[in-house]
Amino acid sequence: MSSFRIALRVLRTDRRTRTSALLIALGVAVATGLVLLLVSLPGATEARADRAAWQLTAVPSSVSDRPVGDPTIQHAASEDVTPDGQKIDRVDVAALADPSDITLPPGIDRLPGPGETLMSPALAEIVDATPGSQLGERYGERVGELGDEALAFPEQLVALVGHTPDEMPANAAELGGFLPAGEGPDMLLSLLAGVGVVVLTVPSLVLIASAARLIAARREQRLAVFRLAGATPRQVISMVAAETTIAAAAGALLGLAISPLLHHLATLVPWDGGTWQASDFELGVVPTVAIVVGVPLLVLLAAVLGLRRVLSAPLGAVGGHTPKPLHWWRLLPLPLSAAMFAYFVSEADSEIEAMLIMVSMAMIIFSINLAGPWITALVGKAFSRGWRRPSGLLAGRRLTEDPRGAYRATAGVALAVFTGAMALTVLPSLESLSGASREYADGVQYVQGEGADLQRIAGETNDRLARYGQSERAVVVGEAYLGAGDRQDEYVKVVDCRGAEQVLPIDMRGACEGTPGVYAPYPLTGGELSLAGMPGEPGTPLGDVPVRPVEERGDAAYSTVVVDSAVVPDDLELSYGTVAVPSTAANSDVVRTALAAASHGAHIESREVRLASQEGELGDVRRVTVIGLTVAALLGGCSAAIATAGSVMDRRRTFGALIAAGTPVRVLARALRAEAGLPAFIATAGAGIAGTFVGVGLFSLLDDGDAVVTPWLAAPIVLGLVVALIASSVCTPALNRVRSEPLSDE
C-alpha cells in the first residue's frame, strides 16, 4: 500500500488526526493569505504613486524616464483643504507649447486653458454642494473631470487648474511634460508591511505547529509501530510527508482562494487620505506561486525534521523517554541577534540593509523562543522546591521535565506581546514629533512669494475679502537679515507694528505707541544695527532706531525679531516675503478662497492645516497597528488554546491514571493553568523588553531623536498573560473528555 493511501486511511478512521489536519490546513490558509496580502502592499503603494506621478513637480530620484527636451509646460503642485478639513491636491499648469503636442497622462482628456479647471469626481461633488466663496472660486470654471487612471485612490480630491505662463506661482517649474510613473512604493507602508510579514506570519506558523502537536504522541507511537514492523525510514518519512502534504496543500489552496477577499478588505482600509483601487493589490504569478508552494514546504520540512526520534529510537517513542536537558547556550543567540539588529539599523541606507533589518528582527523573535524553554526549566525547578500544593508540584514537575512543551503554548502569545511592545514604543515616539511651531499666530493663513509680487497678491486678496463682506485684511511681511555687532545675518521679519500685532505670535506690549523701531524678544547689543535683503550682503545701517522688548505668545513660537517697515531704508529692496491674513473659525474658508485666487495656486500654509496633516498620518499608523495587533493576538490566543489541548492529549494516559486514582479534575486543571501561567509570564516579559528594543531601533530609522517610553508598555505584557490564561481554560473540557473515555483506549 502506498504512503498516500495509508495517510488517507488514517485521516478517514482517526477523528483526532482529522481534527489536527483541519487545524493545520486552517493555519496554512491563514499564513498563506496573510503573506499574499502583506507582500502585495509595496506594489499597491507603487501603483498608487504611478497614477499620481503627474501631480508632482519635483522629479523623484527613482524616476529614470524623465521628460527631456524643450519645456512644454509650467507646473506647480500645492495642497488645499475643503471646509470640513479634507486634503485637496492642487496642480497648476500653463502650456508653453501647442496644447495638442503635450502628452497627457492617463485619465486626463484635455489640458485646461487659462481660467479653466478639471476636477476629480469627489471634489466636483463637494464644490457643487459648497458656496463658491468657500471653495469653488479658488479654481475657476470646471470644464471636465479627471478619470480614475489619474487618481491615487478613488476618493482623491484633485484639481488641475489652467493658467497663462505669467499667472503661474513663483515656485512653478518648467518641465518637458508631466512626470512619468516610477516614484516607487510608500517607504513607511513598505516598512510596516515588512514588519507585518514577520510578526503575523510567524504566529501563523506557531499556530500550525500547535495544530501539528495536537496528536504528536499518538502519531509518534503509530509511526514507531511501523518502524518496529519493518518499515524503512524512507517509508515512515513518506507517510508523514503524505499526511502533512494533504493538509498543508489544502490549506495553501484555501489561502489562495480567500486572498481576493483579504485584498478586498484591504482596499477598504484608508491610508494617506483614501482607500485603494481593486487592481492595486494584484500580485504577479511568480511571487504568488512561490508563496503558495513555499508555505506548505516549510510545514512539510518541520514535520519531517520532527521525526528524528522515531527514526533513530522507535522503542523510545513507544515506551516513553526522558527529554534531554536544555543547555545554557540557548541564551547566546538573543544578544547576538540584538547586536546584529542594532548594527543594521545604524547602517541602514539601502534596500538590502532594510531587508537585513527584517531578517535580524525575525532572528530576535526566534532567539526569544529558543531561550524561553531554558528559562522555563529554571523556573520549574525553583517552583518545585518552593511549592507544596499538589497542583503546584505537578506544574513544577511538568515545567522541569518538558520545558519545551510547557513553553510551546505561549510562543504565539509572546509574539503578540512583542508586536504590541514594539508598536507602543514607535507610536508615542512618532506622536512626540507632532506639532507645529508658531511662525505666525493661530488662525493666520499665509503664502510665500517674491517681493515684486507680494503687493499684488495682498491687493487682490483684500479686494476679494471686501467683496465677500469680510473685515480682515492681508498684511505683507518681508524677509530680511539683521546685523548687530557680533550677530550677523540674523533672520528678521519686516512689517509695520500694527500688522505684526495681527499676524505674528508676539505680544507687542504697547510698543506700537512709540516711534517705529526694532522689536525683539531678547536683547540686541554689540553695535550699530544694519539690514540686508539677503544673507552675506553688505547691510544698510538703520541709524539710531529704538529697540523695544516684546514677548512671545504661546508655546513653540519662533523667537523672531521684527523690524518696523517704517525704519527700512528706501533703497533697500526685499527679495522675498509673505502675505498673511488673520482668520477665525467662521471665515477661514472664505479667507483661504480669497488668498488662493489672488496667489494663483501658491501653497497656503497655516498651523492648523499642518497639525491636521500630522494627525492624519498618525491615524494611518494607528489604524494598521491596531489591525496587526488584533490579528496577532487572535493567532497567539488560538495557538495557545490548541497547544494546551494538545498537552492534555499527549498525556492522556498520565491524566487518565491520575483521575482513576482519585485526583480531582479541578486540581489537574489548576496545575495546567499554572503550567500556562508561569511560561506566559516569562515569555511576555522577555518579549516586551525585546519589542521595546526593536521599536526604539525602528523609530531611529524615521527620526534621529530619542524614542519615548511610556507606562503603556506594560499593557501588552498584562494582556498577553491574560490571553494565555484564558486560552488555558480549554484544559478543563479536555480533562473531562479524558475522564469520559475508557483508559483502555490508550
From TrEMBL:
It comes from Prauserella rugosa. It comes from the Bacteria. Keywords: Cell membrane, Membrane, Transmembrane, Transmembrane helix. It is a multi-pass membrane protein. It is found in: Cell membrane. Residues 197-306, 628-741 form the ABC3 transporter permease C-terminal domain. This is FtsX-like permease family protein. Pfam families: FtsX.
